[in-house]
């Protein structure tokens, strides 16, 4: 059974089982596999009704759906070629309309110098359908790439266009590179998802530093829901990178982990404004351990204001943002 992205044997086995289970559903639907309520997209053609791209501009703020049909020429009003562009991609059980992605969107809109695009793939990634969400990332990346290329043809400067992805969305940003002849300029991966990806995902699937000229990663739940160690050219560990202090009151450990995993997006959103420059890290080991007594070492701003030539892993402490809830 062909799976274009190789997941390795054990995961293929699970997917095969899902496939058998889903074959019953196939009688009714030639392209998609539906098991239980979950949906695995087998088709790889965009536009797809389950992957939507929205555009926002600072002046009007309401969302416009980007018409992805060929030769529609990305017709949406208010796109400004002189502004920078950001593409924001949510993760598992997310949507573009929900916290914490809305905080990132609004932080960019408040700056006024960005065209903001969000990619919504909610019908393909809801809880508990993690396996199908993993599989569906391929289609989402394909659609994102098919949107990105015309955007650059329309005059968007590649070095003024970047992708911000949370969790599985971070891997989607990385997978876009599989479809491009010229690498993207910058990807910011917010606590890239670890479950199964870490063990079984190939490099074509995972976010790696080959996926863009600059790959930045922010760790907030490393080792549980987020990947560990240095993934990008530059990585940041917030509050030790693993479990966020403000999440310890969240009860069960899985909730604490989810809360910590979400915080990467809240912390990143805080760096986006011009005042966000003040969130600086100091060099630390790739496993987020301090190299020097805290407060020593050359500082580097995290997130939006990180200099392009920054390399290595940096650690910083940040207070939680109570206005950035995780559910
Ligand atoms: C999934 O999202 C729904 C709707 O936002 C939320 O109520 C639920 O707690 C989330 N579940 C998990 C396990 O993330």
TrEMBL record:
Entry superkingdom? Eukaryota
Q: Where is the Lipase domain?
A: 44-286
Report what the protein is called.
Lipase domain-containing protein
Q: Where in the cell is it found?
A: Secreted
Keyword Repeat carried by entry: no
**Keyword terms of this UniProt record:** Membrane, Secreted, Transmembrane, Transmembrane helix
Taxonomic lineage from the root: Eukaryota, Metazoa, Ecdysozoa, Arthropoda, Hexapoda
- Where does the chain cross the membrane? 12-31
Q: Which family does it belong to?
A: Belongs to the AB hydrolase superfamily. Lipase family.
The protein's matches in InterPro entries, at most eight in alphabetical order, are given as: AB_hydrolase_fold, Lipase, TAG_lipase
Q: Which GO terms describe its molecular function?
A: lipase activity; serine hydrolase activity
Question: What's the main place this protein lives?
Answer: secreted
Cellular component per GO, a single term: extracellular space
From the UniProt record, give one GO term of the biological process aspect: lipid catabolic process
Q: Could you confirm whether the keyword Transmembrane helix appears in this record?
A: yes
Q: Give the SUPFAM superfamilies listed for this entry.
A: alpha/beta-Hydrolases
